[in-house]
Every structure is written in structure tokens, then in C-alpha cells.
Design brief:
single chain; alpha/beta; seven-stranded mixed beta sheet; binds zinc ion
Length: 347
């Protein structure tokens, strides 16, 4: 891609493969700027991969983007959603309410979607285990599922290894837990393309485990899910955020290297008398711009501490660390304190 190409989030309808178009939809006030929706043309009616956030400007952009390729919004037959995050899922629920469009998402998202429908606050339950002292439950309220987000149960839970057969192509849903537990990517092997949702993004490392039902080994799941993609043929990445077209194999290798480095750095930050996730998050650099923890806003601080906890739990699983609970906070200590550096960080 040349410098003359528009930024990936500039509104429009962009062809990415025969019969497949990308439409970036706005995410007002969000750092990610936009979410890519993919329209797959089909003789039985177009389908969408991901649907966007249910805000009026996104619905307008979707209507405009579809009409640019001669598709009426009400004719969209199905939406296949990669995961339950509101910027991917909630506009599908709106389309169903307006036009009866079918909503389909991975079965692994069921418990988190139930909690989102109930608007059950879940983020604050991690503040004590992570040892967080600078955020309170009240600080997190704006980021919980709330009236901004139109949630509902899907029409169909997509189960593993059940190909989505369209008249002109087959889309294989591949479970890729990590970003969320029920995250799916959709592969069109004949076309050589992979709709990656937020599992593989071209320029940023996806957040891990931010969901109503969080579990401790979300990073282990994510690393295993990168290996799932590594075992596939090389495919063109069609990401939910960022420009499409990169190599799945190359990006998986980069993401694995990022987390290997991050695991080494996290281990190095553990103090001899033990550290909490919060204490270690404050020592690590954040974002591709290497920001300090204190430069992050409330929500990104929460994400950073959660990422740190996820890395600590992988190190614990690998036997590099053990934790004890002190007043409910997990305090991690290295298991061999004989001066060795753990997994070699050299080179
Ligand atoms: Zn997401």
C-alpha cells in the first residue's frame, strides 16, 4: 500500500476480494476510530462479518456503504459476529429489530452475552485480586454494559467445525479464544482470506480477556489460538481494525514474539518479596508508543493491569512464578531465586 491510500478508517466501500467489500464504521469517541465490517455477496442475499456498534452514525455509514455496491440494508440476510464486544455485536441486534436480520455468534460467548443483557457489572471484581489501589468500582461504571449498548441473544450460536455454507463459498468458523472466550475467525480457504475479528490486528496487539466472564488463563488461550492460525495455510488478514491484506503467518509470528518479550519483561519486574499485577503494570511501558502507566486514562490503566495479570498467570502456569493471596490480592514471587534470569532474555 502506498502513502496515497486513505487511512483505513476513512468512510467508504473498499473491495478486498471478489464479492467481498470492507466498510469501516465509526466508533464515536473511541481510540480505535472505526470497526471494519465485511460484506460478502451471495446469491441468496448478502451477509455481514461483524456488524458494528449500534449508534446512529454507524447505521448511516453502513447504509451508505452498502448502497455504494447496490445493496439495500434491509436485504442483508445474516450477520456472522466474531465476538460479543459491543463495537462488533450490537448493531446486529439493531438490524434484527429493524429488518429481521439473523444474528449469529460463537457459542463460547453465551455466558458473557447473558451478563451483558442483564447489565451486570463485572469489571470491579478484579480490582482486589490484581491489587489495584488507584481505581474504584465507580470509576469503571462508564465502561460496563449499559444503555448505550443494545444487547440481545443471537438467533443462532455458532458451534465449532460447522461450516457456514453460502451458495458461492464456504466460511469455516475457527474458535480462537483469548481476546474473548468465544471469539471466532472465519476462513474462506478457496479465496485465501481470513476474517480475523480482533484475534489478529495488523498494527496493535489485541487486548486479552476483557469480557464479563473473564478467566485467568485468557493469555494462554490466546497464545494457543495464535498457534491455531499458524497451522493454517498463509491467508490474507481481513481485520476488524486496520488495513486488510497482511500475511496471517507473518503477523502471528510478530504477535507471538511480542508476548514472549512481554513475558520476559514481566518476570524481570517481579520483586524478591513479591509483586501484584498492579505494581508490575506500573513498571512496564504501554502501547506501541512506550507510554508510562500514569499517562494512560482510566480504562486503559484497567486494561494494562489486566494484561499484566494475564502474563503473570501464564508465568505461574509455566512454573516460573507462584502466588499467595494477601487480603485477596495475588502476590506473585519467582519460584527460583538463585540468580538465574528465567527464560533467556538475551538477544
Ligand atoms: Zn474486541
Amino acid at each position: 500500500l502506498s502513502n496515497l491510500d486513505p487511512a483505513w478508517y476513512v468512510p467508504g466501500t473498499y473491495p478486498v476480494a471478489p464479492g467481498v467489500h470492507r466498510i469501516p464504521l465509526p466508533l464515536p469517541g473511541e481510540g480505535l476510530r472505526a470497526v471494519n465490517i465485511y460484506v460478502v455477496e451471495d446469491a441468496e442475499g448478502p451477509i455481514l462479518i461483524d456488524a458494528g456498534w449500534s449508534v446512529p452514525e454507524a447505521l448511516d455509514a453502513l447504509r451508505d456503504g452498502l448502497s455504494a455496491v447496490g445493496i439495500n440494508l434491509k436485504d442483508v440476510r445474516r450477520t456472522l459476529i466474531t465476538h460479543m464486544h459491543f463495537d462488533h455485536y450490537t448493531l446486529a441486534i439493531t438490524l434484527r429489530r429493524l429488518f429481521g436480520t439473523s444474528v449469529e455468534v460463537g457459542l463460547g460467548e453465551r455466558r458473557s452475552i447473558e451478563l451483558a443483557i442483564g447489565r451486570t457489572p463485572t469489571l470491579a471484581q478484579w480490582l482486589v485480586p490484581w491489587g489495584v489501589t488507584d481505581l474504584s468500582a465507580a470509576d469503571l461504571v462508564p465502561y460496563e454494559a449499559n444503555d448505550r449498548h443494545e444487547y440481545g441473544r443471537p438467533d443462532r450460536w455458532i458451534e465449532q467445525s460447522e461450516a457456514v455454507r453460502l451458495s458461492g463459498r464456504a466460511l469455516d468458523p475457527i474458535p480462537t479464544p483469548g481476546h474473548t472466550q468465544g471469539h471466532l475467525v472465519f476462513a474462506d480457504f478457496a479465496a485465501g482470506i481470513l476474517f480475523t475479528g480482533d484475534h489478529i490486528l495488523p498494527t496493535i496487539t489485541p487486548s486479552i480477556g476483557l469480557e464479563p466472564v473473564r478467566h485467568d488463563l485468557c493469555l494462554m488461550d490466546y497464545l494457543n489460538s495464535l498457534d491455531v492460525i499458524a497451522r493454517l495455510p498463509d491467508l490474507a488478514v481481513l481485520p476488524a481494525h486496520g488495513l486488510p491484506g497482511g500475511s496471517s503467518q507473518q503477523r502471528v509470528a510478530e504477535l507471538k514474539e511480542h508476548h514472549a518479550r512481554r513475558l520476559r519483561d514481566t518476570l524481570q519486574c517481579v520483586k524478591p518479596d513479591g509483586s501484584s499485577a498492579f505494581e508490575i503494570a506500573q513498571q512496564l511501558p504501554w502501547t506501541s508508543r512506550q507510554r508510562s502507566f500514569n499517562e494512560l486514562d482510566t480504562f486503559n490503566r484497567y486494561l494494562a493491569i489486566g494484561e499484566t495479570a494475564a502474563h503473570l498467570n501464564v508465568l505461574e502456569l509455566r512454573g516460573e512464578l507462584a502466588f499467595t493471596q494477601v487480603d485477596g490480592t495475588r502476590v506473585y514471587e519467582r519460584t527460583h531465586m538463585d540468580g538465574k534470569e528465567g527464560p533467556s532474555g538475551a538477544g
